[in-house]
């Protein structure tokens, strides 16, 4: 209790404006680690891993509770749990959504380590059989949503391509950007303010085809967690959200796979043991074939065109190996590519070129169990996002080729410990170091005519690098039967050239039980972000958007967010209702100076941005979910305001952010009609996004004043609204168990009633009188796909 | 340069193609006219003036003088969604006032001592005195019975740049060297280079160049596509030189000129225009406005304006020094 008193006193005396030194931070860590050690001798610990019985895939977020009511816990991202209880026999219950629950009697005489395998429920369940995860009302965390991957795969999708980022857009507090975009705008933040982790590796561009699809292949994904606020101290580096995506580990027991053929892409996923029960692998690939289908048409249209097309693809690969009960190693690799290419041939002249972009990311993770109460994960990460332009001109026997590149590259190392001294405390602490490398522009060229070759890249803009270090400590503590608190500190140190920034970011989430099924929650989090994304395309994910570091003249961004909420679970835990109100302030945000064009000159980007921007986002989110049974789904509603202010934009006046949406409503419904059929439907409605409307036309002197030119002026920034967005989608899955495989026909209809939603508006001056025109992208789009699982 | 030009063209092609892809997707969808619910727009008096003092922009060896120096226009503005046309307002009364309160009436009938009317665009143009130019304040007033006013814009012109030619060196490219004595206080110089073919006496144009001096930045409509010379310097046809690094000191400038002409020796004239601070703001805004006009995904930019009195428009100024490299 004395140590606890010290912790509380430290937190009370904490003043975020007076930053602690690193030494003080470490001392605080040590105090928290030493929580109530004296009591441990009277207790025994039940720990281990929970796995899928069929595949040995470790399960995340499994609920383990002692029936005596003395404690409970959930498995972490590696399927590990630890539950320390008073010595003596206890009834233990293990439950997980979509799996049969498992109850057993534990003697509680001594520490016990075991691996439990849960059986998946059959597809057709009676309504009465309900097994769910920990009710939200029991968790201290708020503003967090674990995506049910099975349900996510059933949600209707554009061209039938299941996309987890699109599913996240159906959740309250998450707005989509433009029509068709997978960009996520979480609680007023931009897409650059989302920390998107794939097996712990941050990805910098998650868009295929300018944002119409995300890079995540749902067949390779095990779990997806979205955190919108009340961020636990273990996360940092972005202002607005954490999207933690974990790839499948690979089946330890048997070889199997999935394959699908759709209108625009095909996918194949294989997984199985390399050494049964010790080593497994998972590999998944996807590629579009629009270009293959379009080639003959393009050639027929213009015989000088030798090739032209566009495709995207991605590959997920994961291998994991058990060294014993205490050690396990995971190696993950992910790469994706988008390529737009064309070529011409006329006589002896040939031209070939392309625009290409993609990520390469890898992680090596080592889990180690020191003892039943202390778990370690060490992760080494590498991630690179690069876009490039290549060209080759051939004339007779001479050729000239160029290769222009721009990239960001990170190398990181981090260690995370979890310490569970007793049922009332779950301590996490750790730290990490990331080296960011920025190569804004580099060129390689070769000219056989002149003999000028430059095989190594020549940097056309300075290569920049920065170092970001972090340490954190957090504790999820049950203070009383009703009050549970997750509190912690996240410390960041950032170095760019000789400029350094440091910040101590307090985090707090608290839950107070009103009844056994309802609770009120509160959270506060300060977040800092050291990287900026320069994008002037208003939500179109052009690959040339440039990631840049905070510098001496462009400080990092900072956000403070408070949220308060109420959660209610129905008595049978079928229904869950949450309502949350949040208020977020952002400082140090940057925008391109007004009018800077889409392609960025990397040489003087610092002179082209408006710095010191402020942002305010606040609103109310309501989510009603039915999580189990034949009929499932949710209704999400968001009422929000989202404003920005820059000294040099809009005459210094506050203006609405482009993706300020007053109302946003999503309805997701899935219905298991029979053993073989399921029907799914979604409907979304959103206030039109803010944009600029031309107001007047006048003359300006231009470059040569004796010939003035017409120029269009707009009113206040983002003072005009697109028409409201709404759309309905449906899909039908027809599953059938064949002899050696299960097959599924999927029929999807995107935009069922063919609503003309705005993609952009423009002033058309082609007629006698200028008119405002709206361009829409997708009318009704039916699609079909065929999937087998073997 | 051939290779770089190819690459530049290719880059522009890629941009056009990417935007074309969007356009194709847009066409695959639908385009429809939206009913507008905007308040009626009230037309305003639009006054624009560029006041240039100092040297004429002249090519002395061929006795050729550029035909513009100071220009003033008065017009109206129209609503963005009306069928109205912009008109030059010939009956606008325009007064030109110097800091000694000497008032010249330039329009509608009296054009003063040094001004005349250019018919095509109905622009008033003329020349300011070339001597005693330091810190002289000029004000332009426009009044029209149908519009709010008077619309007033003014500029305090900076001193004429104190610079001299150090010579030229011809090789693979031509290097022009200039010595500049900067005055104390923040100052910006707009730099342009003109080339003239003495043999044909026909081709006078701005030429591409790069500048070695720190503090120089490019300024052009398509500066995102500006390219670098082999040493990494951006190549442009105009730029701004800030004196932040050499305030009040003497500095030697070196301009590397890429005329694109081969086997022809050009006469070069370097225009060094000491400009007011809002000149840069205006030019950058203007280029971005023009560059983004047809890009619905870029934030729009309104033209920088600095007139008062209920109208719109911009009054800017600068003082020129021309340096001749025969």
Core attributes:
heterodimer; A: 790 residues; mainly beta; 5-stranded mixed beta sheet; 57% strand; disordered N terminus; B: 326 residues; 10-stranded mixed beta sheet; 4-stranded antiparallel beta sheet; 24 strands; globular
Tell me the layout of helices and strands.
The complex is a heterodimer of chains A (790) and B (326).
Chain A: H1 2-13, H2 22-33, E1 43-52, E2 63-66, E3 72-74, E4 80-86, E5 90-95, E6 102-106, E7 112-118, E8 144-147, H3 149-154, H4 164-168, E9 174-176, E10 184-186, E11 194-198, E12 201-202, E13 207-208, E14 213-214, E15 221-227, E16 241-247, E17 256-261, E18 265-275, E19 279-288, H5 290-301, E20 305-322, E21 327-346, E22 349-371, E23 374-395, E24 398-422, E25 425-447, E26 452-459, E27 464-478, E28 483-496, E29 499-513, E30 518-529, E31 531-534, E32 546-549, E33 557-569, E34 575-592, E35 609-626, E36 631-645, E37 655-656, E38 663-672, E39 677-686, E40 690-691, E41 694-700, E42 709-714, E43 720-721, E44 725-737, E45 742-750, E46 758-764, E47 771-776, E48 781-789
Parallel strand pairs in A: 1-7, 11-16
Antiparallel strand pairs in A: 1-4, 2-3, 2-5, 5-6, 8-15, 9-10, 11-12, 13-14, 15-16, 17-18, 17-48, 18-19, 19-20, 20-21, 21-22, 22-23, 23-24, 24-25, 25-26, 25-27, 27-28, 28-29, 29-30, 30-33, 31-32, 33-34, 34-35, 35-36, 36-37, 36-38, 38-39, 39-44, 40-43, 41-42, 44-45, 45-48, 46-47
Chain B: H1 2-28, E1 30-33, E2 45-54, E3 58-59, E4 64-65, E5 70-76, E6 78-79, E7 93-98, E8 103-107, E9 115-118, E10 123-126, E11 136-143, E12 151-157, E13 162-170, E14 174-181, E15 188-197, E16 204-206, E17 208-211, E18 216-218, E19 227-228, E20 234-235, E21 239-242, E22 250-258, E23 266-275, H2 277-291, E24 312-325
């Amino acid at each position: 209790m004395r140590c606890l008193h010290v912790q509380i006193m430290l937190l009370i005396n904490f003043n975020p404006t007076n930053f602690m030194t690193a030494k003080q931070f470490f001392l605080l860590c040590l105090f928290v680690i030493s929580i109530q050690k004296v009591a441990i001798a009277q207790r025994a610990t039940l720990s281990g891993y929970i796995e899928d019985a069929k595949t040995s895939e470790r399960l995340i977020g499994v609920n383990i509770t002692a029936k005596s009511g003395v404690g409970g816990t959930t498995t972490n991202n590696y399927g590990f749990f630890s539950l320390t209880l008073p010595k003596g026999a206890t009834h233990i219950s293990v439950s997980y959504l979509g799996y049969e629950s498992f109850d057993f009697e534990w003697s509680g005489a001594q520490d016990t380590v075991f691996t439990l395998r849960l059986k998946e429920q059959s597809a057709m369940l009676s309504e009465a059989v309900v097994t769910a995860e920990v009710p939200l009302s029991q968790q201290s965390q708020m503003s967090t949503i674990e995506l049910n991957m099975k349900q996510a795969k059933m949600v209707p999708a554009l061209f039938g391509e299941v996309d987890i980022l699109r599913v996240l857009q159906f959740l309250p507090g998450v707005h989509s950007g433009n029509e068709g975009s997978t960009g996520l705008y979480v609680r007023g933040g931009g897409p650059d303010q989302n920390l998107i982790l794939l097996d712990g590796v941050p990805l910098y561009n998650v868009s295929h085809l300018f944002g119409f699809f995300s890079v995540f292949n749902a067949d390779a994904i095990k779990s997806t967690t979205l955190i919108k606020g009340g961020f636990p101290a273990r996360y940092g580096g972005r202002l607005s959200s954490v999207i933690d995506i974990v790839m499948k580990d690979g089946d330890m027991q048997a070889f199997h796979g999935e394959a699908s053929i759709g209108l625009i892409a095909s996918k194949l996923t294989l997984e199985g043991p390399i050494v049964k029960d010790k080593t497994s692998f998972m590999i998944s690939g996807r590629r579009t074939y629009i270009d293959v289908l379009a080639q003959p048409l393009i050639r027929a249209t213009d015989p000088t065109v030798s090739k032209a097309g566009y495709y995207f693809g991605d590959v997920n690969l994961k291998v994991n190996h058990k060294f014993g009960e205490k050690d396990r190693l995971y190696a993950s690799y992910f790469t994706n590519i988008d390529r737009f290419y064309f070529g011409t041939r006329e006589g002896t002249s040939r031209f070939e070129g392309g625009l290409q972009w993609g990520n390469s990311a890898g992680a090596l993770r080592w889990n180690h169990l020191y003892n039943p109460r202390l778990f370690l994960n060490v992760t080494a990460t590498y991630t690179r996002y690069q876009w490039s332009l290549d060209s080759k001109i051939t004339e007779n026997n001479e050729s000239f080729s160029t290769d222009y590149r721009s990239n960001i590259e990170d190398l990181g190392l981090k260690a995370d410990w979890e310490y569970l001294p007793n049922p009332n405390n779950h301590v996490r602490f750790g730290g990490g170091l990331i080296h960011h490398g920025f190569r804004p522009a580099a060129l390689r060229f070769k000219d056989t005519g002149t003999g000028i070759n430059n095989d190594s890249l020549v940097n056309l803009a300075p290569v920049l690098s920065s170092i970001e270090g972090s340490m954190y400590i957090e504790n999820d503590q049950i203070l009383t039967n009703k009050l549970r608190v997750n509190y912690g500190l996240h410390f960041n140190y950032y170095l760019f050239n000789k400029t350094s920034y440091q910040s101590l970011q307090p985090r707090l989430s608290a839950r107070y039980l009103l009844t056994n099924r309802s609770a009120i929650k509160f959270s506060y989090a300060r977040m800092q972000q050291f990287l900026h994304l320069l994008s002037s395309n208003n939500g179109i994910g052009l690959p040339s958007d440039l990631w840049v570091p905070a510098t001496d003249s462009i400080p990092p961004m900072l956000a403070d967010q408070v949220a308060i909420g109420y959660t209610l679970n129905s008595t049978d835990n079928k229904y869950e209702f949450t309502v949350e109100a949040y208020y977020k302030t952002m400082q140090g945000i940057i925008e391109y100076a007004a009018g800077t064009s889409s392609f960025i000159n990397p040489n003087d980007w610092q002179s082209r941005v408006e710095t010191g921007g402020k942002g305010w986002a606040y609103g109310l989110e309501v989510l009603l979910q039915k999580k189990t049974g034949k009929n499932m789904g949710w209704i999400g509603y968001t009422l929000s305001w989202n404003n920005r202010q820059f000294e040099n934009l809009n005459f210094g006046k506050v203006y609405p952010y482009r993706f300020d949406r007053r109302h946003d409503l999503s309805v997701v419904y899935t219905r298991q009609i029979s053993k073989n059929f399921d029907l799914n439907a979604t409907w979304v409605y959103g206030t039109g996004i803010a944009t600029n409307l031309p107001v007047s036309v006048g003359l300006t002197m231009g470059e040569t004043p004796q010939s003035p030119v017409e120029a269009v002026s707009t009113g206040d920034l983002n003072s005009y609204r697109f028409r409201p967005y709404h759309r309905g989608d449906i899909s039908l899955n027809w599953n059938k168990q064949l002899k050696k495989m299960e097959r599924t026909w999927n029929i999807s209809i995107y935009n069922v009633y063919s609503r003309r939603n705005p993609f952009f508006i423009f002033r058309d001056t082609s007629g006698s009188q200028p008119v405002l025109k709206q361009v829409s992208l997708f009318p009704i789009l039916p699609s079909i796909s065929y999937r087998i699982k073997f | 340069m051939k290779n770089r030009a190819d690459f530049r063209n290719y880059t522009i092609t890629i941009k056009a193609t990417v935007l074309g892809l969007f356009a194709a997707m847009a066409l695959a969808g639908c385009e429809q006219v939206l009913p507008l619910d905007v308040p009626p727009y009230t037309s305003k008096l639009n006054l624009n003036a560029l006041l240039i003092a100092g040297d004429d922009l002249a090519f002395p060896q061929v006795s050729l003088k550029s035909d513009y120096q100071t220009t003033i226009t008065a017009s109206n503005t129209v609503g963005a969604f009306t069928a109205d046309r912009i008109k030059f307002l010939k009956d606008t009364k325009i007064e030109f006032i110097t800091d000694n309160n000497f008032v010249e009436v330039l329009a509608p009938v009296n054009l003063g001592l040094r001004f005349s009317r250019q018919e095509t665009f109905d622009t008033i143009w003329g020349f300011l005195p070339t001597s005693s130019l330091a810190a002289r304040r000029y004000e332009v007033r426009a009044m029209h019975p149908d519009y709010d006013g008077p619309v007033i814009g003014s500029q305090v012109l900076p001193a004429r740049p104190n610079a001299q030619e150090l010579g030229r060196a011809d090789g693979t490219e031509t290097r022009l060297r200039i010595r500049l004595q900067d005055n104390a206080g923040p100052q910006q110089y707009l730099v342009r280079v003109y080339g003239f073919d003495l043999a044909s006496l026909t081709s006078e144009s701005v030429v591409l160049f790069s500048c070695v001096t720190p503090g120089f930045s490019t300024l052009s409509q398509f500066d995102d596509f500006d390219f670098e010379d082999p040493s990494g310097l951006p190549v442009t046809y105009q730029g701004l030189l800030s004196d932040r690094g050499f305030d009040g000191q003497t500095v030697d400038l070196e301009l590397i000129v890429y005329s694109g002409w081969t086997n022809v020796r050009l006469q070069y004239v370097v225009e060094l225009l000491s400009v007011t601070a809002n000149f840069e703001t205006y030019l950058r805004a203007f280029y971005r406005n023009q560059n983004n006009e047809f890009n619905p995904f870029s934030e729009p930019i309104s033209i920088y304006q600095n007139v008062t009195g209920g109208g719109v428009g911009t009054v800017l100024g600068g003082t020129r020094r021309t340096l001749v490299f025969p």
